[in-house]
Design brief:
181 residues; alpha/beta; Rossmann fold; seven-stranded mixed β-sheet; PRTase-like; EC 2.4.2.7; Adenine phosphoribosyltransferase; glycosyltransferase
Length: 181
């Protein structure tokens, strides 16, 4: 957690029963609509990583891009998009992961970074952890070192952060929500 964690959490909107009954959607658009909140959000990540060697920010499609691009700029790192299958125009590596009903695939350009580079994986939210783990595994397959898997929000009751840690990756989130919040 960061000095701004409670404030950032208070700005995130919860939309109950969306996109289906029983789901609490954590809407980060208020963070981007309020300039002070967005600055505090980016600053939370900058303060955590400013003294850590990071060569690239691997941001997950699409909401991870919102945080990943300004963070890469602030840290003087490159920006690497981790995209949904079929969205990258060059030679790619792909990783498929399980969803509640079916599978999904993410891809990374084969030349996204150099072997041995230190990579921070970032997304907006950790739920079951499948997308984040797939991205981290792609980075390892390309010879990168995953510094940490980071997100704005963690939903620990869904088990994603525990699964990521169990796979050997460090996890950081700015704030977390329980299902009852």
């Amino acid at each position: 957690m960061t000095p701004y964690s409670d404030y950032i959490k208070s700005v995130i909107r919860t939309v109950r029963d969306w996109p289906q009954p029983g789901v609490n959607f954590r809407d980060i658009t208020p963070l981007m609509q309020q300039k002070a909140a967005f600055r505090k959000l980016i600053d939370s990540f900058v303060h955590r990583y400013q003294e850590v060697q990071i060569d690239a920010i691997a941001a997950i499609d699409a909401r991870g891009f919102i945080v990943g691009a300004p963070l890469a700029y602030e840290l003087g790192a490159s920006f690497v998009p981790v995209r949904k299958k079929g969205k990258l125009p060059f030679k790619t590596l792909s990783e498929t992961y399980k969803l509640e009903y079916g599978e999904a695939t993410v891809e990374l350009h084969a030349d996204a970074f150099n072997p041995g580079n230190r990579i921070l994986v970032i997304d907006d939210l950790i739920a079951t952890g499948g997308t984040m783990l797939a991205a981290a595994n792609l980075i390892k397959r390309l010879g990168g070192e995953v510094v940490e898997c980071a997100a704005i929000i963690d939903l620990p009751e869904l088990g994603g952060s525990a699964a990521i840690e169990h796979a050997g990756f460090s996890v950081f989130s700015v704030c977390e929500f329980s299902e009852s919040e």
